[in-house]
Design goal:
heterodimer; A: mainly alpha; two-stranded antiparallel sheet; 12 helices; 2 strands; B: mainly alpha; 3 domains; two-stranded antiparallel ribbon; 14 helices; about 5% strand
Chain lengths: ~350, ~425
Amino acid sequence: MSFGNLDLNTVWFGLVGILFTGYVILDGFDLGVGALHLFVARSDEDRRLFLNAIGPVWDGNEVWLVTGGGALFAAFPMVYATVFSGFYLAFMGLLCALIFRAVAIEFRSKHPSPRWRRFWDWSFALGSVGSSLLIGIAMGNIAWGIPLDAEGEYAGGFLQLLHPYALLMGVTTVALFAMHGAIYLVLKTEGAIQARIRQWINPLIIAFILCYVIVTLATLLYIPHITEAFRREPWFFSIVIPVVLLIANIPREVNRGREFLAFLSSCGAMAGLMALFGVGMYPNLVFSQPLPEHSLTAFNAASSTKTLGVMLTIALIGVPVVLAYSASIYYIFRGKVKLDRMSY
Amino acid sequence: MSVEILARLQFAFTIAFHYIYPPLSIGLGVLLVIIEGLWLRTRNPLYHQMARFWTKVFALTFAIGVATGLVMEFEFGTNWATYSRYVGDVFGSALAAEGIFAFFLESGFLAILLFGWDKVGPKMHFFATCMVAFGAHFSAIWIVVANSWMQTPAGYHIVGEGLRARAEITDFWAMVFNPSSVDRLTHTVIGAWQAGAWLMVSVGAYYLLRRRHRAFALQSVKIGLTVAAVAAGLSLVTGHTSAQGVAVNQPAKLAAMEGHWVTGPQAPLHLFGWVDVASETTYGPALPGLLSWLAHGDTARPVIGLRDIPPDERPPVQFTFQTFHVMVAVGFALIALAAWGLGAWARGRLEIPGCCSGVSRFPCWVRRSPTRRAGGPPRSAGSPGSSTSCCAPRMRFRRSSRPARSPSPWRCSPSCTYCSSRCSSFC
């Protein structure tokens, strides 16, 4: 299929962004459930409820990361190679966290021993928090900028990645996911446990907003290339307004007992945050600091037009199908979670 | 150790571990379709129970497959960044297609498969099972295409020089159907069927030996054995066509696999042996002309030997030769095992433990107290007091699934002292 004069590089910048947004929204809530697992769910039954609330969907949610990574590899191999080899230790940590988490979900309830279950409970919770933190740190570094050489290779070490801005971004991500996960749990549970989760929502929203305000201030003060993008295109601010309104809408909907709308607001707010991140970065995929001319952009790091065209064809066929059956699966598993003999 | 060796070791370890699980889920996917199809057709609750049990095993292999697969995807970038830059244009589209078409299909419908027993109707559930199995096969397609492209590249050209050089795609379909794709794909998928089927046979056989869940175990062995036998036979065929492809496309690889040094007609095939790389000879029993015949269908056709290949282009000969021969030996052993199992089935002796029939001796020591049966699949309603003695429960099982054809053939063999004392108390 031919796409004429379409700017495929920009299209793929957007599509990769959409895939990662999908990942953040979907895996965000099940990572958030993991973050709350030890504190909010105390009894064994509560913990099983938590696991089964995400049971049918967490696997599919993680596929968004796999596909996002695959799309990045295909569309922007330079970025893929630089980020993955440059953030080597961070990614190994992320992998370790994701694996412990996945195995914990599968293994935990297969054996009744309390010690066994406690071990996997901790694995699940630490894996979830660790993944969220590392995802946030990676995003913080990409925004802040990392030292790149002329070949596009990362020229720093691991500890250099743990500067205050990146850590702040990591903490913000954990808070955001925990808030998102709590709203999802309110949607999926009932009775006493639901009431307990409900009490956690407001503190989590406040924690997230605090972090978010600090991150925004830090971004405006210390990250000139993003500030510059907003100065150049003031309409970017129009994305900020719905994000703020959606976040403000969450406690309102929760208090009125309309959990589904609260969850949608949370999803919308996260999509808005990712969009802000995307337009602020464009066309840079990895910003190079201190030498901005080595930055990897949607144009100098992309695959050939031919490959981008082939992939767009694949995406145009595949993505609608994926969205259709993902939606129907969420529809089939709507409603409150109940424990039965096939449960975790 | 150099960083390169460490990176290779890490990659080898993780890919070997990963490669245990996706083949199992591909194979189990096919078996789940068969079992659930049988359930839809016969409405025998035993099949329903089996489908539920094997779905859980499938989910376990699938989840670990996803987790370890994520490692593979990351390692292309973390360990082989320069290589990823070089092939991203070609390789990436196959991986992206795998993500979009296969992984989502699998993981999405897996939710219905696992948690949807009471949420959707049996037909919809069966559809979900088919989609999961289909997705599992689809995911094999793209990664095997990418792997085949690395062996026999096609449909690309190289742009740039030095570290900036990279492969760019010129013809997508030529890349997909590169010379070794189809052979490698069929051999891989059929091997995966074997893996899943033998897993099912093994678990069923274990339960049979332990006298637990007899109806379930017996049916698992039968279904698994059928698929394993078919797949073992087909593996021989696809293995042969793969080797013929290697003879044409990668003569150096074929020569290393067979430890073949001198180019010429009547090339011999070594059954097993030892390669002396220094003196460029291979020792061991060989069948003259067979390699020529297998590779080209004619004993008079020459097969290129390693001496005609520059030393710096030769693969590591000893290692390739030995691992290839182990693989072939395992393939034939599995064919023999399948044949032996089918024979035992035909004689109605599948469920008779060795100690009582004399068919096999090794199971005696595996047997433990028959009263322990924690865990395992839920007991079917039709076999209440299943399995304490060698003799009685089999009749009960027969009644529960289909009418008994003949009286129980259990006999006690005096050859095993441990069992004969136990058997005599039952028989």
